[in-house]
Amino acid sequence: MSVNHIKWMNFAILQGLRSKGASGKNPPVGCVIVKNDILLSYGRTGTSGRPHAEEEAMNNVVDKKNLIGSSMYVTLEPCAHKNNNGFSCAEQICKSGIKEVFISCIDPDPRTNYRGIKILRKKEIKVQENFMNNEASKLYDGFFSRILFNKPFVSLKIACSLDGKIALKNKKSKWITNELSRAYGHFLRSQNDAIMTSSSTILNDNPRMDCRLSGLEQRSPTKIILDRYLKVSSNHNIYDTTYKNDIFLYSFMEMKDHLTKNKFVKKRKVDKKLNDEDFFKFIFSDLAKKGVNNLLIETGSIINTLLLSLNLVDELVIFRSGNIIGNDGLPFVNNLNFKKINDLTNYKISSIRTFEDNVLEIRNLTNKDIRCSQAL
Ligand SMILES: NC(=O)c1ccc[n+]([C@@H]2O[C@H](COP(=O)([O-])OP(=O)(O)OC[C@H]3O[C@@H](n4cnc5c(N)ncnc54)[C@H](OP(=O)(O)O)[C@@H]3O)[C@@H](O)[C@H]2O)c1
After folding, report:
1. Domains along the chain?
2. Closest ligand 1 atom, CA of 231?
3. 328: exposed, middle or buried (C-beta count within 10 Å: 0-12, 13-18, 19+)?
4. Is the pTM here over 0.90, yes or no?
5. Which of 173, 197, 198, when mutated, tests ligand 1's pocket best, judged by the most ligand atoms within 8 Å of its CB?
């Protein structure tokens, strides 16, 4: 494998990352066009999903003759379905004169799945598929989960003490982790399409759940509120819509007169008879239908325990400080009542970093590999 191909695909992956959490229901894609090992152009998925990265990269080349004989590096298979101009990305590539395309991940969307590649190969464009698939697949954990499993990719964020407690006995939790950790937590919010919290956490902490990093405020995710009995009033910070993001409110109650003045609130009634598993499955599939690929959850012990016991968490994002709270604190997870070690769920480490004396561990569920080429 040539080193330069790796370099250019890494650049394409970085472009894709810039769109993560800001590409609507479409997947975040990065694309780079190179000729004679010199960068011609690059692009990434636009806000709300259009233009596609390949379109943007090709449009950015002023003299289109330069595209003839060039190479494209793209993190997801070019689409085979037509855009508003009547052409798919694969067809536009065919018309451009690009001679070879390196593709990291195959698109599971049935409108494209291997059809994009077929269109390219039919025009004798050299295609290398699954190129750096491992490196790029992290971009698509959410998109693949939504398309293949009808649920968003669920990341559970936990800010805890050294001994795994998320609040004191009196439920005070501001602040267990340091400023840098919290800033990174805001960055993670910007990379997710939606953020979920509960009535209990809202009533205790009055959080805003937006992204308050300077310059990234508009990347604040859609807010998802679990408030089965409508305990949270419109005065709580969560209903602040400065950044104009939608709020999905899930409740058992009729909501005709509730929060009628807030046009950002989308009311979603949940059947009271659903058991815990069906309750969350209903919400996750509803969110998937709305195009939510990546869902960040910031809740306390009760919801964390439910989600973990139901195996609904794909990724744990644990910020751990050096403080010790003790056994009277609120644990990040309550009893799970396992009887056999072999039955324990394993979350494998995918990254670790430090923020001064805080540690961030990101761990993924081991038994669910959603890299697309394998899932199909
Ligand atoms: N450090 C951290 O990472 C972190 C993050 C978040 C929260 N916290 C802390 O955690 C504390 C709150 O934790 P918590 O355990 O009380 O609350 P929680 O887990 O956030 O939420 C529990 C609430 O969720 C609602 N709920 C919705 N669906 C449910 C279901 N199917 N089954 C049961 N309950 C359901 C219930 O309220 P309804 O009956 O009203 O629906 C329940 O009281 C706060 O002190 C907060 O500071 C810490």
Report:
1. 3-141 (3.40.140.10), 150-375 (3.40.430.10)
2. 40
3. exposed
4. yes
5. 198
